[in-house]
Amino acid sequence: MLAIPAIDLMGGKAVRLREGDPRQATIYADDPCAALREFLGAGARRVHIVDLDGAFAGRPVQTDLVRRLVAVAHEGGAEVEVGGGLRDTAAVLAMLDTGADYVVVGTLAVRDPDAVSLLCRQHPGRIIVAIDARDGLVALAGWQEPTAVPALALAKTAAIWGAAALLHTDIARDGLQCGPAVDATVSLQRAVPSVLVIASGGVGSLADLDALRAADVRAVVLGRALYEGSFTLEEALARC
Predict the structure, then answer these.
(1) Are 32 and 7 in contact, with CB atoms under 8 Å apart?
(2) What is the rounded CA–CA span in Å between residue 185 and residue 149?
(3) By the 8 A CB rule, do 105 and 127 touch?
(4) Which of 20, 28, 1 is closest to 229 using CA atoms?
């Protein structure tokens, strides 16, 4: 199982939110590049970066910082996946231009599926579709806009497009360390066996990682648990 440490950017700092609420932000690092170097030193092979300012503004905001982080990650031999505020094709292409290995789109996949389908064809292996769900239904625009779109339906559609992976976040668990949505993630993976499904949200202990691995989940994003010291990235990598 691939363990992917997360760096969420807000105001140029590395933060974590609770349930995606910008009013509940905790600053963990004034220098995100330093935080990234720590993850690289611990053995990270891929890093998950989110432009939270961009997610809430509806357009990329921290592109220059993302570009610097991508360069640092590549120097350390790690891949980078980046998302947040990529609501049109131009924004996706601009993020790919930073050198990011993968770009994560969520809102765009629902609002303009034809555009994402085309992006998947034009940039094979580089477009990850985010499935941000609450009670099994997809939420958009930085998780602030609920929809009636079932997570399972979006997963199946993204697989048809040829998405590089699906990033499944259980919004109600994100940032709370209350345990991951194992069953929901496994259901998505079984529905689209040919596509990597990345679990995100709720991991708070090494036992949570054991549960995901036992269920044959193949990748997981780690956030608050690392920053709060619930376990180290080295410990997580050893368990994965």
Answers:
(1) yes
(2) 16
(3) yes
(4) 28
What is the b/e burial string over 197-217, where b = at least 16 CB atoms within 10 angstroms of the residue's CB? bbbbbbbbebebbeebeeeeb
Q: Is the dihedral of CA 200, 136, 125, 96 positive or negative?
A: negative
Which residues lie below 8 Å from residue 69, measured CB to CB, with a gap of 6+? 7, 32, 33, 36, 47, 49, 80
Computed on alpha carbons and rounded to an integer, the radius of gyration of the chain in Å comes to 16
Q: Which amino acid is at 80?
A: V
Write down the pLDDT at residue 183: 92
pLDDT of amino acid 226: 96
Residue 48 structure tokens: 């998950």
**Which regions in the chain score pLDDT beneath 70?**
19, 173-176
Name the pairing type of β-strands 46-51 and 79-83. Answer: parallel
Residues annotated as catalytic are: 8, 132
Short-list 83, 74, 238, CA closest to 165: 83
